[in-house]
Design goal:
Elements lengths: L1 H20 L2 H11 L7 H25 L1 E8 L5 E9 L6 E8 L1 H5 L12 H16 L7 E5 L13 H22 L9 E5 L1 H11 L3 H7 L2 H10 L3 H19 L12 H8 L10 H4 L12 H27 L8 H13 L9 H12 L1
Parallel strand pairs: 1-4, 4-5
Antiparallel strand pairs: 1-2, 2-3
Helix pairs in contact: 1-3, 1-13, 2-3, 3-13, 5-6, 7-13, 10-13, 13-14
Protein name: Mitochondrial resolvase Ydc2 catalytic domain-containing protein
Organism: Zygotorulaspora mrakii (Zygosaccharomyces mrakii)
GO molecular function: crossed form four-way junction DNA binding; DNA endonuclease activity; flap-structured DNA binding; Y-form DNA binding
């Protein structure tokens, strides 16, 4: 066990060394493959890769120690809070879907009498997040990582911050802090999990490059969306359609009626999905997930986001394992043949950077700068 831990730690400086030797094009593709930020130059690109590698390295070490890891991914929303949980067992090719659900936060977690809606008052937001945090950590089998989708600060081109967006931003910050601090201060490490902020742009870019479903997605467009694509490129609304179609293709693949094999299913999940998907090309994700009476509006996009965030982290972890194995071939020391293998592995990864849609990146930057 000590030897495994030492090798896990030494993999990080070895990876950094080979990143320094690689060209910018290779590093850019490696960043997409690991879920890291791009940066403005090679130095910031390498720094972002290494910051992401620290989290992935810890996840991999947990997998080595335990034989498996699980990730719970959260898509925050007041009316549509969604989460998904995946488990990846060492030696198996595909992760397994464990949980997938959504609910209306106020109905589920605002317990104060005489209140139906959460205000921006600290007593309301703290109560909702406290109850939510208790719900997420009350399981017998806690995940090894919680990922929380990073929220935008403004609504598209608006110069003001709308109250619903402000609420979700506050909830994101409090939930991240509560989950992290609850783990930090738990007695003898009883709540031993990681908490990560998951960038929606990186997740979206990853799945667009791995699964370029242009024909399938176009068939799902409404007439309004078709016209919008012609004039504005890939808008936020159409991006949601893209992700929903992506999840549908993955679910079909899990049932053996599609080509995209990314997850496996338990007998219970197989039985449930077989009730909605085969022979129904227009099936809805909210029918597939076992939603309860406080599930909020019947919408697919929040379920799709939570699903794809969690699965993306599993895919990034798998590729990190491949890269880590290569950089450690000569005990972490530099070798020209290892560098060649490092570059070849990045180049041969199924991720196709050419399929990334520049319009999404443009929209994302506009949101941040507006």
């Amino acid at each position: 066990m000590a030897k495994q831990s030492m090798l896990a730690k030494s993999a990080l400086p070895a990876l950094d060394m080979y990143c320094r030797k690689a060209n910018t094009r290779s590093l850019r593709k490696l960043a997409y493959s690991l879920g890291a930020g791009l940066g403005t130059n090679k130095t910031s690109l390498r720094s972002n890769i290494m910051n992401q590698a620290i989290s992935l390295n810890e996840l991999r070490q947990r997998q080595l120690d335990q034989g498996k890891i699980s990730v719970t991914s959260i898509d925050l929303g007041i009316s549509n809070f969604a989460y998904a949980k995946f488990e990846m067992t060492l030696g198996e090719e595909l992760p397994k879907l464990l949980e997938w659900n959504k609910f209306q936060l106020e109905e589920e977690f605002l317990k104060s009498k005489f209140k139906e809606r959460m205000s921006l008052h600290p007593t309301d937001t703290s109560e909702v997040v406290y109850n939510l945090c208790e719900y997420l950590t009350a399981r017998k089998k806690l995940p090894d990582m919680f990922t929380i989708e990073r929220q935008r600060s403004r609504s598209m081109s608006s110069r003001s911050i709308l109250e619903p967006i402000l609420k979700v931003n506050i909830l994101e910050q409090i939930l991240f802090s509560n989950l992290l601090n609850k783990s930090r201060y738990s007695q003898k490490g009883a709540l031993n999990y990681m908490v990560a902020s998951s960038d929606p742009q990186r997740m979206t870019s990853y799945w667009n490059s791995v699964m370029p479903l242009k024909d399938s997605i176009k068939r799902s467009y409404s007439k309004a969306e078709e016209e919008e694509t012609k004039t504005n490129g890939l808008s936020n609304r159409i991006s949601k359609t893209t992700k929903i179609v992506t999840v549908k293709k993955i679910l079909e693949g899990a049932l053996g009626i599609g080509d995209y094999k990314y997850i496996s299913l338990s007998p219970d999940w197989s039985k449930r999905l077989e009730s909605f998907i085969p022979g129904n090309p227009k099936f809805k994700l909210y029918d597939c997930a076992p939603l309860g009476p406080t599930s909020g509006m019947k919408k697919d996009d929040d379920l799709a986001d939570s699903f794809l965030h969690g699965l993306a982290w599993i895919e990034w972890l798998k590729f990190y394992g491949q890269i880590r194995e290569i950089v450690m071939r000569k005990e972490g020391k530099y070798d020209q043949t290892v560098l060649a293998a490092f570059n070849d592995t990045i180049k041969s990864n199924k991720l196709d950077v050419n399929n990334l849609n520049d319009a999404q990146t443009t929209i994302h930057h506009k949101r941040i700068s507006s």
